Amino acid sequence: MLAGVLSLLGAATNIARPQAAQESAVTAVDIALEPDAIMIQHAQAANARLRQDFPEGFALDATHHPHISMLQQFVHTADLDKVYAAAGHVFAEEKPLSWKLKAFKYYYIPSPPVGLAGIVVETTPDLLSLQQKLIAAVTPFTAQGGTRAAFVSAEDGRDIQAFLLDYVKNFVKIAAGPKFNPHVTTGVGTETYLNKLLAEPFDAFTFSPVGASVYQLGSFGTARKTLKTLALKH
Known about the structure:
The protein is of the alpha+beta class.
């Protein structure tokens, strides 16, 4: 298990040979809120600690954008411009630039002996409303049968986990509405270290969204390639 995880993490930290969205009939997208400098600083600090514990993990950088995923979906590549327009209209109506969000704890998704870590954001009615409107707006363009070719890959799809295919396909069922867990992914660490991290007091802080983007997903659900930056209004 560890060898397999290390192999995948090694691939995820390489500079990807991005597969242009046009190369596949289906694209795995992540419609996300961009957090402000306050959250970025906390995420980068957490990432630095994780990499001290587990150097094989990925760094938050230009191809691993800190973000809050609102919706992940497989969409028809030919409809990407329609997806951008639909999502942009929703963001313009919601005006998230005025929101104050609260980060209140660490968490991780276990994949023994490591885990994928993040900072959890308090769910608000505004976030839930935004997510539901995005789902409604993007659903007409969703595609069935997304494969590893739909993702940005450093190794011709070998670094795209099978669970990730299922996660994106079933996002609306397993990660939306009452099951929504807004968070900013911070990296990978050993479970031993992550359990110690979770036992530490967490100093809650507030931050705001400063933008929104549509990304093409990569290994471990990271936001690897910016497809479209969406304009927001105050």
